[in-house]
Design brief:
Elements (H helix, E strand, L loop, with lengths): L5 E2 L8 E2 L12 H6 L5 H7 L16 H16 L2 E5 L1 H7 L7 H16 L1 E4 L5 H13 L8 H19 L4 H7 L4 H8 L4 H8 L17
Parallel strand pairs: 3-4
Antiparallel strand pairs: 1-2
Amino acid sequence: MLQEKEIERVGGVRPIPLDVRLVCSTNRDLAQMVHDGQFRADLYYRLNTMELVTPPLRDRLEDLPELCELFIKRTNQCNGLAITGIHPDVYRFFETYHWPGNVQELEHTLERAAVLLGYGELNVPHFDFLSERIGLQRADSPDLHSFTLKGRKDALERDAIFHAMQVCHGNKSAAAKLLEMDRTVLLHKIQPLPDQQLGALQRLPGQILQNKVPHPMAQ
């Protein structure tokens, strides 16, 4: 029994005393579940001696640098890699994402990019796969305007511009060529972008990465 701090073996006849500390974790609101009759009240009050609430990653983005440093060090050790660090633009890029998978998703995201790069500094283009999740995140957000034909067209255009700017490392001329669009038209279309997305574009690096990532327009 949990309360008496003892157990009985299957088929046993004598209780065995225990000296343990039980630590439980959940991402559910157990108090609300008890109120709704979805969780046993007696078990909840037996477990809930001391409660520690850890906010999700999206509510503590200031922890990103320390977490990334920890995960990169762990990834290097486990996979024999030589990742030297992360460019500051990556942190700003990460701040545009909601991180529904929390810290575990951050760790796996860094590991995926690190394994593909192998050595050197991680930069925004190494996380192109995360752009797709950000696009889905925006698509899932409630926006009545997005249900109209014009709204959907505008959303697709914004995503195409954002992705092209990432691939071209912030080079507007290269992005315009990639989009088969006049540079003046691209600059005109960038201005009305949402503040969060426009800020991310303005912070993209304007030069080719020093770790020899090939520029798309050089191919």
